[in-house]
Amino acid sequence: MRDGAAGSGLTLRFSGKPVSENPSRVVVKFQVQTTAGEPVDGLDEVDFTLSEDGQPLSATESDHRLVAAPRQFDFFTALLLDLSGSVVTQIDALQDAAQALIDELPEESEAAIYSFDGRTTLQRRQDFTFSKESLRGAVAGLNGYRVVDPSTNLYGAVLQGIDVLDARRQLATTPVESAGFMVLFTDGTDHAGLKTGPQARQAVATMRRMPPGYAFFTIGLGSEINSAELSALGPDGFATALEGTQLGGAFRAIGQRLARAASSYYTLSYCSPKRAGVHNLTIVARWRNLTGQATVPFSAKGFTGGCDPLGGSARL
Known about the structure:
Elements: E1 10-14, E2 19-21, E3 25-34, E4 48-52, E5 55-57, H1 59-62, E6 65-68, E7 74-82, H2 85-88, H3 91-104, E8 110-116, E9 123-129, H4 132-140, H5 154-170, E10 178-186, H6 197-208, E11 214-221, H7 227-233, E12 237-241, H8 247-262, E13 265-271, E14 278-287, E15 290-299
Helix pairs in contact: 3-4, 3-8, 5-6
């Protein structure tokens, strides 16, 4: 499988292997992004062309159907809040910004809130929930917060945040269709020295390669931000806010990006004319002036006529 194959500006990332169903239905799920990592939502059937073993399939021959599939996937977001000494002085702005992000979270998705400072472990403020009211309540619960450890265990928070996402992913009934997001809010540098930057960066890179992948976002606050480090820890989106009052807009922009990412997953179902053997399906996507393609093998063993692209047991 050529997972993540790119073209002139677009990348298609497959989620698992295609499902082959008798009489001749093929179902494949994938995400579309620009090569710069921007999610591409709003695509329709006319934006895709199909070919098998290099031979184009006409729309009438394949009768293909495409749906945007945000509700087909198990989306969950972990919001990590830096409550070290330098950030708590702006706790009101942080709370307002976190509420703005909660408002922008994708519908039908779960989110959890954790905080970190100089301690060795994350502090859970709200476990994963669909309830935005519960999330808002957890943020409101930070009123009057007093610093416990003024240091910043930034790299440790990233690694433990990944563990939180991975544990949540393991709860999914179809883990290959789970996608996790992390939004890390911090004023910058790791002061605790409990973990290293290479450890955190490698963990982020590894998790992003897992199908259908994890997305990592960072928001930096203050005038002394290590932009290069936060960009590395937030390869899917990095924003800065020099003043606490600007955080609402920064969080809102990240939240809107999360929603676009959730809507950039698609399910394609079509009727194959093949009747035996293993073949290569190539999908070409077009968006604005950008194109991209990816190829994946599928089995046509036992295929016959009479196919309904929306029928069978593989759920669209």
